From TrEMBL:
It is found in: Mitochondrion. Belongs to the mitochondrion-specific ribosomal protein mL43 family. SUPFAM superfamilies: Thioredoxin-like. Keywords: Mitochondrion, Ribonucleoprotein, Ribosomal protein, Transit peptide. This is Large ribosomal subunit protein mL43. Residues 35-108 form the Ribosomal protein/NADH dehydrogenase domain. Residues 134-157 are annotated as: Disordered. GO terms for cellular component: mitochondrial inner membrane; ribonucleoprotein complex; ribosome. The keyword Ribosomal protein applies. The keyword Ion transport does not apply. InterPro entries: Ribosomal_mL43 (IPR039927), Ribosomal_mL43/mS25/NADH_DH (IPR007741), Thioredoxin-like_sf (IPR036249). PANTHER family: 39S RIBOSOMAL PROTEIN L43 (PTHR21396), LARGE RIBOSOMAL SUBUNIT PROTEIN ML43 (PTHR21396:SF2). Its main location: mitochondrion.
Length: 157
């Protein structure tokens, strides 16, 4: 927490993801719906049309489809870091449910909070930032604009 009252942190990679190969952070996806309820109509359509395609494109994610006597259909996503997200999909179409699954798949499971800086390093340099004149010898003097040829020719006459 900062003095502004909103949680914040530095930018970081989840488990150094991207250093080697990419590892999808979504571990398990549970689709909970009712066989008969009107609110589960969209999720039942998605199960008939798109759940097999989703499972093919995301082989590292386990997909559970569980029909239960419930009034509110939901998608429960479990991530590698232990976080669990629930998305309620009442009254959504199969295309909207596909977009929700894509969003859950691309997330890391961390809470969405304000970033302090857009960059961060685990090994900061104590030498300071480099620029083109860092190692320039001081005896050369300051850098000045070059004189044009016409001015040099007049000064030689």
């Amino acid at each position: 927490m900062t003095s502004r009252g909103t949680p914040s942190r530095f930018l970081q990679s989840v488990l150094q993801n991207g250093v080697g190969r990419y590892v999808c952070q979504l571990k398990r996806l549970s689709i909970i719906f009712s066989k008969n309820a009107q609110s589960s109509l969209g999720i039942r359509g998605f199960i008939e049309e798109g759940v097999v395609d989703y499972a093919k494109y995301n082989p590292s994610t386990v997909v559970y489809v569980s029909p239960q006597p419930c009034r509110i259909p939901k998608i429960v996503a479990e991530y590698l870091n232990g976080n669990v997200r629930e998305e309620i999909v009442t009254g959504k179409t199969s295309i909207q449910i596909s977009e929700v699954l894509t969003k859950l798949t691309n997330q890391s499971g961390l809470d969405i909070i304000r970033l302090r800086k857009p960059f961060h390093t685990d090994n900061p340099s104590i030498q300071g930032q480099w620029h083109p004149f860092t190692n320039r010898p001081p005896c050369i003097g300051p850098i000045r604009p070059q004189k044009q040829d016409a001015e040099q020719g007049l000064s030689n006459i």
